[in-house]
Amino acid sequence: MNTDFAHYYQRIRSKQKREALLWSLGLVVLYLGAGNLAEFNLHTVWVSIPHFFDYLAETVPTLHWNLLFADGRTEGSLAYWGYRLN
Q: Which residues cross the membrane (predicted)?
């Protein structure tokens, strides 16, 4: 009886491993296909990393402590940059 259970267990484990491998391969294919459709390129990402931080520096608003809670017409306040606190 113990050997029957061991064979059953091994059969179930091998089936689980096979199915896990097939699902993993399927997800990898979908992932790579989505990257191909989106025209994703690691080289482009690597080359663009320094420019990304330049972009962040240009898009992050300049806020001033003394003007932080001023009205929406005062540049340097939260309301001016779209937070609409007043």
A: 20-38
Phi/psi of residue 75, nearest 5 degrees: -70, 135
Give buried/exposed letters for 55-70 (b at 16+ CB in 10 A, else e).
Answer: eeeeeeeeeeeeeeeb
Q: Does the predicted TM-score (pTM) go above 0.90?
A: no
**Contacting residues for 29 by C-beta, under 8 A, at least 6 apart:** none
Q: How far apart are CA 68 and CA 27, in angstroms?
A: 47
* pLDDT tens digits, 9-47: 999 999 999 999 999 999 999 999 998 899 888 898 899
| Spatial contact of 74 and 67, defined as CB atoms under 8 Å apart | yes
